[in-house]
Every structure is written in C-alpha cells, then in structure tokens.
Amino acid sequence: MRLSRYFLPVLKETPKEAEITSHRFMLRAGMIRQQASGLYSWLPLGFKVLRKIEKIIEEEQNRSGAIQLLMPTIQSADLWRESGRYEAYGKEMLRIEDRHEREMLYGPTNEEMITDIFRTYVKSYKDLPLNLYHIQWKFRDEVRPRFGTMRAREFLMKDAYSFDLDQEGAVRSYHRMFVAYLRTFHRLGLTAIPMRADTGPIGGDLSHEFIVLADTGESEVFCHRDLLEKPIPSADTDFNADLSPIFEDWTSLYAATEEMVDMAEYESDVAEDKRVSARGIEVGHIFYFGTKYSEPMGAKVMGPDGKEVPVHMGSYGIGPSRLAAAIIEASHDENGIVWPVSVAPFEVTLINLKAGDAECDAANEKLYGQLNAAGIDALYDDRTTGAGQKFATSDLIGIPFQLIVGPRGLASGEVEIKHRKSGERETIGIEDAIARLKALIEPERRDTI
Ligand code: 5CA
Question: Which ligand 1 atom is the nearest neighbour of the CA of 323?
Fold first, then answer.
C-alpha cells in the first residue's frame, strides 16, 4: 500500500476524551472514530488489525473442531421469552419494535438463537458433540461505555456454543475451548491467564475468564506467578484426545478474579513471593451451563438408550474489538503502538528518505515490488514529507519493521532496517534486505506454533 494513496488520518494532538493509552493511540493512529457514545467506525488501519485478530481466532476455533456460521444481529423477543431472559436482561438490552409492532432486540449474545437452530435440525446423540460459532456484532447498552473499543456498546464478539449428550461430554468440549483459547491469545502476542470466574447473566457453574494483566484493566485479579510463564499447547495438539491433563495443569495454580477470590485460600495456596495481585482486562470468557437453555427451549436428542434428553451446553466468548485495545495496552511505548507481527496492520514500512529524487524513487519502487512479491505486507511511505515525520508516523501506528532507504546509503549499496520493538538498527546490503526481513518476520507471524 502506498501511503500517498491510503486513508490514514493520523492526529497530532492527543484527543481529550481518551483516558487510557490504547484509546489515545487508536484515535491518534487513525484506527477508529467515535460516532456516538460507545459506537465506533473502524477506519482502514483499525479494520486491518481487527480482521487479522478475527483470522487467528477463526483458525484456532476451526482447529479445535468448532464450525463457523453466521446469525443475524437482530433477534425476536419471543425467542428470549422462551428462555426467560427477555425480562431478566434489563436495561442493557436494546429493544426495538418493527413496523408490524413486533418486539425485536439487538442481540447482546446468542444462546437462545443457537439453541433454536440446534433444536430444529439435531435429533440424535450420534450428531454430537457439536460446536457452532460465529463472529458478529453485539449490542449492550452499557451504563458507562468507556475506554474506546475496550468497553463499547456495539462490539464484535466471537461466540461459540457447544452441545453434548451429557455433562461428561460437555466438560470435554469445555476443555477443547480452554486449550483453543490458550493458543489464540498466545498467537495474538498476549499472555492471557485463565481465572475462575463468576457467570453473571449467562448462568452456569463452571466458568473461566481469560485475563490480560494491565494497569488499566477493569477488574482486580489474584494469581500464581508461574502462570505467566507456562508453555502453550502446540499446534499438533490432538483435539480428539482427552485434554483434561492440560486443563488440570493450568487450573491447579491459583487464579481468580475479584468476584471469586477467597483471600484465605489465595494466601495459603500461593507462597508470598509467587503472589501476583494486579489489574486485568477480560478478553475471553467461557461457560458451562448444562441444560439451562436446552431444557426450557426443548433442545433434546435421542440418547443411545432411546430416551430423549435435553443437551448439555456451554458458551465461549472472545471480544476481537476489545482485543485490539488490549493488545495495545500490553504493547506500546511513548512513541506509539508496538504491534506483534501476527496482528500488525502492515509488517514493514518502506521509508523513502528522499521522495522526488529520481534515483531514490527508483530504488524504493524496486524494493516495494520485491516486498510484495515476497508476500510481505508493506506500507510504502512515498510522501514528500520530511524523514522525521515518516519515522514518527510509522512508530505511532506500530509497524514492526522499517526499511529505510535514502541517497546516502544507496551510494554504497546499503539500506537500514529498524526494529520497532527494540529500537535496534541494522545496516544491510540492498540485495540482502528482503531476505533479512523475511527471516525476521516469518517466525513472528506465529501461524505454525
Ligand atoms: N455468551 C457468552 C459467551 S459467548 C458471553 O456473552 N460472554 S461475555 O459476556 O463474557 O462476553 C464475551 C466477551 O465479549 C468478553 O470476554 C469480552 O472480550 C467481550 N465483551 C463483552 N462486553 C464487551 C463490551 N462492552 N465491549 C467490548 N467487548 C466486550
């Protein structure tokens, strides 16, 4: 992408309304624009990040055996009356009336709708286990939308729903999602710790929140320090196998959110030097709730003994639009965002230090062609602005590498590579630059771990 033809409305001023770093940088980097309280447009740079986050989530959901579909954002109130949640949900639910005076709502979550789909088509235990997911916008009329896309009113959610014949099967499905979540957050460049959690309006008795530690997090959390260093299950994990050993291993160390923490237990379970009490951002939340929806909504299957039973269900949420902000909270410096390669909107900024100079332009054009041919996602800063502004823009928007090309280096056949994260610079022969960047970028894409 040529920056001169791109739409990248970066801001010089720090917007007043932004209280936390990620919100500030998302506005300044031209990623998002607030349209009304808690409602955001995703501008091209932000949208690219969001799509990359979604793609990683999809790959890991698919790997675990979940199947993607798409349900509408608007739902019928009648469906929610069946589960009893229409009245219970309260003011967070945006209620709408259509022209026929039918009561509708903008979905805050999809347990009811997926249960309706399931009960329509699935009748036998032979079709289980089944896990269906979608990535769709949700609306919750939060009392205090704040921190940009971190707590918005309209936000993107990946929500998966598992169906099993009995509790034992449902717990296996829960473990599969647990492992898929560990892998997903790791690939997004995050350390997210699963913690015992409260179930809230979703209900149920087994639940974990996945928490990224950050000072600006909304909840207080308490956990064992070793959880921060634990190795992540690899891509060749067999999702048909019993994953309870991985689950037990992770959950044997103490970790709980403020709603669930038992201070006496925390202090007796965790040695003083291993205690981490910090603030955290909830990026994912998984629930097992048995027959809470299948029972009232009549989602039943025939068991092997010929008897009909309501299915055991779980639901599994991740917030891609919140994640864009959470990743920035976890990875930035005073100059801007520091994207992990796996979600960076571009992998390299090609910085032409003397746009307009025929020789320099030619060398940059050639490198830009080579970057594209090598499958490297490059932003070519071909503007005729000063070098300082180009460095500042690339730093602000968080591109992992800069390939810096100017007349002085070209005279001796050299270019420079700057690493966004460490600030390190290397001078390299122009012929070797693409291979070097490839070697730096490919392992960081994390698509094979
Ligand atoms: N039905 C269940 C799981 S599918 C559910 O709704 N879970 S949830 O309420 O915990 O939300 C799932 C995820 O959506 C959260 O972990 C969070 O990452 C994201 N999320 C929830 N509320 C918001 C919000 N107001 N703004 C941005 N993201 C949100």
Answer: 18
For ligand 1, the distance from its centroid to the CA atom of residue 141, given in whole angstroms, is 13
pLDDT tens sequence for the chain (449 residues): 999 999 999 999 888 889 899 999 999 999 999 999 999 999 999 999 999 999 999 999 999 999 999 999 999 999 999 999 999 999 999 999 999 999 999 999 999 999 999 999 999 999 999 999 999 999 999 998 999 999 999 999 999 999 999 999 999 999 999 999 999 999 999 999 999 988 777 767 789 999 999 999 989 999 999 999 999 999 999 999 999 999 999 999 999 999 999 999 999 999 999 999 999 999 999 999 999 999 999 999 999 999 999 999 999 999 999 999 999 999 999 999 999 999 999 999 999 999 999 999 999 999 999 999 999 999 999 999 999 999 999 999 999 999 999 999 999 999 999 999 999 999 999 999 999 999 999 999 988 78
Residue 351 · residue 394 · CB < 8 Å = yes
Instruction: Please state which CATH class domain 7-337 belongs to.
Output: alpha beta
CATH classification code of 348-445: 3.40.50.800
DSSP code at position 31: -
Sign of the Cα torsion 395, 397, 399, 405 reads: negative
CA dist., res. 444 & res. 449, Å (int): 10
How much is the CA Rg of the chain, to the nearest whole Å?
A: 24
* Ligand 1 centroid distance, CA of 94 (Å): 16
Determine the residue of 106, 132, 285 to mutate for testing ligand 1's pocket, defined as the one with the most ligand atoms within 8 A of the Cβ atom.
Answer: 285
Q: How far is the CA of 38 from the centre of ligand 1 (A)?
A: 14
Query: Cβ(40) to ligand 1 under 6 A?
Result: no
Q: Where are the domains of the chain?
A: 7-337, 348-445
